[in-house]
Amino acid sequence: MLMERAGAEDVVDLMVPGSTGTLRKLIGLTVYKSPRFVPEFVLRDFVQNIYKTNLKEKVELIKAISLGNKNEFQLTPLSQDVLVIWGDHDRIFPLDKAIKIKEKLGEGARLEIVKNTGHMPNTEDPTRFNELLLDFLMNDPKPSIL
Fold first, then answer.
1. Domain count, the chain
2. Are residues 36 and 88 in the same domain?
3. How far apart, in Å, are the Cα atoms of 10 and each of 16, 17, 61?
4. 59: part of which helix (H) or strand (E)?
5. 118 contacts 35 by C-beta, under 8 angstroms
6. What is the pTM of this model?
7. Positions in the chain short of pLDDT 70
8. Burial class of residue 117 (count of CB atoms within 10 Å of its CB; 0-12, 13-18, 19+)
9. Same structural domain for residues 9 and 58?
10. InterPro entries this protein is in (predicted)?
11. Could you tell me the residue range of the domain that residue 14 belongs to?
């Protein structure tokens, strides 16, 4: 689905963009409200300094997480509390994936959906993201067994 939405043939080409055009596509998929204008030189610098550095390792990582059943997350329930923060307009992983992840993680999983954000709620609404994170971290943890 993601590849169809992006109009891309290969996940590596999309997630590790080698051109400013592909980076613009990726930005369009990751944020709910695309920035009005990003200068070409900023995108070129970003591609060169962020994506080209350690390119081989990034490609290996993308390929590794792309293996397996493309429609199902393979998760094991966790005993510790887990906070999952999700943008309600995430076009990389739609909201139904967040619900499935929460269910698979078990009773200790807490799903928080941030309105009017895409794949990067931490960037698009940092105030709300930080409130959710601090609330989660400041709550009394379950007693640990020593």
1. 2
2. no
3. 10, 11, 14
4. helix 55-66
5. no
6. 0.74
7. 1-3, 5-8, 65-74, 140-146
8. buried
9. yes
10. AB_hydrolase_1, AB_hydrolase_fold, Meta-cleavage_hydrolase
11. 2-66
